[in-house]
Amino acid sequence: MRVWALFVLLLGFPSVSAAGSNFTRLNTPGPHAVGLKVVEQYDYARSYRGTYDPLTGKPLTGEQARPIQTLIWYPASKAIKQAMTVGDYLKISASDDDFERTAAERAALESKSAADATSDLSPERAKAELAAMMQAHRDATPAPGKFPVVIYAPSFSASAIENADLCEYLASHGYVVIASPSVGPASRAMTEDLEGAETQAADIEFLMGYAHTLPQADTSHVAVAGYSWGGLANVLAAAKDSRINALVSLDGSARAYPNILKQAAYVTETRSTAPLLFVASPPADFEELPPIAPNYETSPLNHMKYADVYFVKLAPMDHWNFNTMFGQRLLGEKDYGEYSQTELSTATAWMETYVLRFLNAYLKDDAEGRAFLDLPAVKTGAPAHMLTTRVTHSQGMPLTRVAFAAELNRQGFDKASDVFKSFKTRDPAFTFTDEELLNWGHQMMEKGDLVAAIGLLRLDTEVHPDKWLAFDILGEAYSKHGDKDLAIAAYRQSLVLKPDNANAVERLKGLGV
Fold first, then answer.
1. Average pLDDT over residues 414-441
2. Is 139 within 8 Å of 38 (Cβ atoms)?
């Protein structure tokens, strides 16, 4: 009750000094002011609560579609009103999955949200933290122009405000940042299973669609950042959606849930191609342990051959410190470890620096950002022993049929055999079935591209020399192309493999044999 009363008192005094805040923003904001818009909307393609209350059994009324509270941080003009406080953000998160509450109900939840968030703080510090000034200005005038989009995915069951500092920082540097809470499939509580992770991944997809309605959003350049559980959901989303150009994982759970990743069979090497920045807390993570470690084989971070991957480990940061709202600003005194508030603020500044440089490199094609990411830790300018880095670069395009087709388009379909051999050298398991090459060759022949059809069908006869139909159709392609001798040879080989092939007999007669 003491903190609750304090929060109510603070509502009347928005100018209270934030001098006592335990979090200090060390990075200079970007050239843009920051606006914040909060939208309460629904994903009508998905349901949320069921027909009956699971506790009382009473029928539920009201909207049944999935609620998506949407926060949009964006570059704004300078002519704006007073910035928000931490207390203002807590009010936003108080009622983030039920938009049908009355004003009185919302006010009660807002007071409870502040009381819960500051329950471990002294009255003096609670007062300072709630009044701490942020950068965002509600409903500020958007700056002109279009900006890359960053979708932020929060941690397990967390609100969308948990990393408001990072979201504001990115917006000040020219990004539209969109976030929604981590909400379970059918209730506010997230579920710790594949359904829960895929539900949050679907929320990411919804926000990507919503971004297309924002005049400022450059939806041709999209990244997804996720903390903890959100750093699992964003991996699932990127494996399904090639429009996601980059991933940021703040101590993400992709490495901690190998069972969920195994169930999500679509998360494969060839589909995990988005560049990844993984900022981790110590000690040694799974990716650095020897192959006998439980997650070594199943962690996707050890098998991202076709993406640039940057590992940054920040010594002062425990897992919850990556959530600056609740893991630093509102962190109880007893929850601090061996590092001070100042050291955590410094580590957070370096986290922001790496995230910004990474996004600039991959969403804005910034060469300076790319060069910074490749620097050894000792050359970044970070305090000694603050961070360590590890970089692995992509081995090129993933070895898929699409990549194979792109390479044939570049070199020519008549080089199909040579291109296949080069792919096979990189990955001995790469191959095509007889049916795949037959259908592909036949489709190209129907399009009238006989050179392409011949290249693919000839490759089929090399990869599957025992398949009579491949030689039969290759003979047809050669014949249509005017290569009589080659057509005769192909039909004859078809007859060797299938002596009763009546089509080959008739075709050979037509060719004068």
1. 94
2. no
